[in-house]
Structures are given as C-alpha cells and as structure tokens.
Design a protein that fits this description.
The complex is a heterodimer. Chain A is α/β, with parallel strands linked by helices. Chain A folds into two domains: 4-185, Thiamin diphosphate (ThDP)-binding fold, Pyr/PP domains (Rossmann fold); 271-377, Rossmann fold, CATH 3.40.50. Chain A has helices spanning 11-22, 36-45, 59-71, 83-98, 125-130, 146-163, 173-177, 245-260, 263-266, 285-300, 318-327, 341-349, 368-377; strands at residues 4-10, 24-29, 52-55, 75-80, 102-108, 139-141, 166-172, 179-185, 269-272, 279-282, 305-310, 312-314, 330-335, 354-359. Chain B is built from six helices and seven strands. The longest helix of chain B is centred in the C-terminal third of the chain and has 17 residues, at 161-177. Classes of the chains: A alpha/beta, B alpha/beta. Chain B: This is 2-oxoacid:ferredoxin oxidoreductase subunit gamma.
Amino acid sequence: MADKIIKLMQGNEACVEGAIAAGMRFYAGYPITPSTEIAELSAEKLPQVGGRFIQMEDEIAGISATIGAAIAGEKAMTATSGPGFSLKQEGLGYAVITETPCVIVNVQRGGPSTGLPTAPAQGEIMQARWGTHGDHSIIVLYPWSVKEIYNTTIRAFNLAEKYRTPVILLMDEVIAHMREKIELSNDNKVEIYNRKKPTCSPENYKPYEVKEGDLVPEMAGFGEGYRFHVTGLVHSESGFPSGNEKVAETLINRLIDKIEDNKDDIVEVNEYLTDDADIAIVAFGATSRSAKSAVDTLRESGIKAGLFRPITIWPLAEKELLELAKKVKRIVVVEMNMGQYFLEVDRIAGKFTKVEKYGRLNGELITPEEIISFVKEG
Amino acid sequence: MIRQELRLTGSGGQGLILAGIILAEAALYDGMNVVQSQSYGPEARGGASKAEVIISKEKINYPKVNECDIMLTLTQVACDKYINSLKSGGILIVDKSIEKLPERDDIKIYRVPILETAIDKLGKPMVANIIALGSIYELTKIVSKDSLERAVLGRVPRGTEELNKKALEEGFNLIREHKEDCYGEVC
C-alpha cells in the first residue's frame, strides 16, 4: 500500500476531514454559504465514525449544542459564515468563560449583513478577536491552502483541548470553495491532544481548580460520574457563581494568561524570503497566496521582497513582528478589508519601520499584480 | 506548457463546476499541480456560472484565473460577459446555440453543437458538460485521454458510466467532424 493518498479536495472538505482526524464526533450548526459544505459533509461523515450531526434551528443554537457536546466529553465543532458569525458571538463568550474546548469555523464572505454571500472578504479579523463581549483572549487560526486547512483544523482541536478554550478557524471563501491537491498519509497518524481529565475522586473534584504551575483546569465530562455546575457567570473553583472581586480577578486574568503566556506554543508564523528582504508583505489566507506570487515576481525584477504569513493571527505574533520590523525598510499589510490587521502590525512595527496598508473590498481576491504595483509605486 | 488556465462558462445548472472538477482531477492523475475554483451568484439555477481550472507544472500560488488560455462557453450571456478575459491566441469553444460570435480575430473559435448533441443524440441534456470535456480534450490535449476517462467515471453517478463514455466520445467527434465550423486562425 502506498504511504500517501493524493487526491483533489475542496477546502471545506479538508476542514471536515481534518476535524474527524482530530477526533470530532459532534457537529451542530446551521448551514450558510460559503461554509455549507462543512455542514453537509459532517452530516454525511460523522455517522460513519460513530459521531452525531445535528442541524439546529439557528446559529446560536448551533454553537450552544456544540458547547453542550464538548462539556459532555466530545470533540465538537460548528461552522458558519457572515451573519452567522455575528450570532455565534453569543455562545463564543460562554465557551470562553466556561473554558469549553470547541472549534468554530468562520468561512468569511462579503459583509456587512448578508452582504455578498458567494464572494470572498477578510472582514472578520477584528470580530474574531473582539466580537464577543467582555475582555478575553482568543486563539484564531488562518490557513492558506487546502492541505493547510486539514492540518490547521487538527491543530485547532488540539489547542482547544490543551487550553480549554474555543478556537476560531478563519477561512476565506476562495480557499474553502476551491479544490487542489492534497496528500494525506495512509496510516492516518496525526498528533492528537486530548483534554486533561480529573484523576481525583468525584467528591473531591473542583471543576475550575488549577494545579500548581498550571493555568488550565482538568475537565470531567458530563455523565462520567463527576457532578459539576457550569455557568456563564463569574465562578469560583467550585463552578458556582461568585461576585467576589478576588475570585473575579483571578478567573479573568487566568483566562487571558493561559493563552497570552503560551504564545510560544500557540503562535505559528510562516516566513518566505524575509531574511534578506527590504520589503515585507504581511498577509494571511487567500491574499497571502497572491502575496507569495507577488514576492516571486518582485524578486525577479530585483526588488528584495518577502512574505510574513501568520497562521495564528490571534494572539498576535508580536515577537516575530518586532524582529521583522527591525529587519526590513518597509512593511505592506495586504488584506481584503480596509485595514484591520494593519492597525495591529502598525502598533508593533510602526516604531521601527514604515508600515502601509493595501486593501480592497469588492468581492474579488486581490491579485499579485495589484500588490506588485502598490509595492513599486506606493 | 508550464501553466494553462481554463474557464468554463455558461448558466447555473449546466454542470460546468463538475466539468471543472473532472478536468482538474484528470490533470492531477497526470501528475500536474492543479487548482479548481468557481464563482456563481446567490441563485441555484440560471445566472452566469463559471468554473476555472489552472493546470501547472509548477506550484500554484494565486489560485484565480484572470486571463485564460482556453474558454468554453455554453450561453450567449456568458460568452458576452467573459470573452474579453480570453488571452490573445487563446482557444474559444462555443456552443452552436450562440449566434453572435465575438468579434475578435486574435483567437481561435470552434463552434460545435454541444447542447444539441446531448439532447438529440444521447437524449440527456445533463451530459452536455461531459461532451464539452471531450471537445476540450480533442482540441487541446490538456490532459491525457486515460486520465480524463478515469476522472469522468470517478465522478458521475453509478449506472451512468456507459452514457458518459458515449458523451465523451461524442465530444471528441464534434471537433473531428466540425472542422468547417472553426473561425479565425486555421485549426
């Protein structure tokens, strides 16, 4: 038998395949373009691996059921697009404060509102970061190819389990809907991280207690014999609500610290020809593919360009951006919006180098030619 | 032939996206790099639909087709809409139902009865997309014949294999038999 399976796969399909490989056994959602295939394929494939698919009455119910399944011990996912992502914000915050591991996919489309349902946009960079109310930290991953969607979906589940947090997988319509070559290993060996389960007896279990030196509590599954209370209110180690200011401060700080203190583990950046670059293009998802083409063409014409591509867009790759800023004369942030990530890149890199933005919003992917002419002519 | 870009255009529901997938799969079997994408409006049927395929020996970064080398068009609306995106020297295959041919003398135009063949000869309008693939193959040899047949048979519903093989064959024949319907540069 061959070691590799080579096939043509759609981005949304790779997301489902990756999720199942990571251990997803529950999906609840409300189908919406351009993420619909994720729901369709989950409905088809989950029963084949002993999992469950539920189509809910709306997006809020979708994320709520996903959270419920995750608390019951399953690896669970929901996917949406556009207006659906606005609705997911309700449950997202609940997953943050209850520390429920789950994956929320947002295949972005043109907005606001129902906007351009079948066209690409990168309008939810900031909504993914700050969309749910209350101060919090969040992990957001952003793949650029079908193969990377597969790997990144697995990583999303692993990070969700490891840090007991919702992980957002942001995708572009362009990549979600296109098909390209993917090579999968035949032996199906993928690195899987499962949430830490309590080893204590049920009567001694405190659902939100953290062990010395750890920031993530052990998580029992509902129905496994451990009784515990789950609430969106600020809660103590016992899981019951508390209005105590010390309890509140400890909890909220820990929720943020467990992500921000582990950036070395969470942040993933791909750099292409940045070592000797004078100009760095910062881009993610589909636009980073245009940017890579642009970098190659610019190099051919003697301009030392490079690509800085965050795969983890949140938390921000501050350390890596700082290094980049000290190395290059100019940074151009290319995104299909009017400058969202640009603000963050400028905040970090602006003190050391010139940071500019190039954005366009009309439902078409930014082309390499546009990037080249912006770099050349400013 | 390092990189070839194709655009298959027509109306939603004509199976052009499936045709694009099949072509991409055939190129994959040939060992090429490939990206297949599509764009369509919010409607389920009708409107202008297009599928795009990039076949390349090199890695494909930018995944969209701007100017294509080969274009298929099954409706007048799609023909008018996309004709300017065909490169100079490019190949255009249009269905016979398209009456107003583009006024370009820098491309090769092949006008063949794809939709009519599907209905009259095979009695199934839905195989027009496979006939079109046969014609594209016969004209361009962009993929190998074996890979194309394998890709077609791998994607069509079970029980329709013979019908689709016939459809491919009809597609080959359309080009062989309609040399007189070529315009522009001699084919």
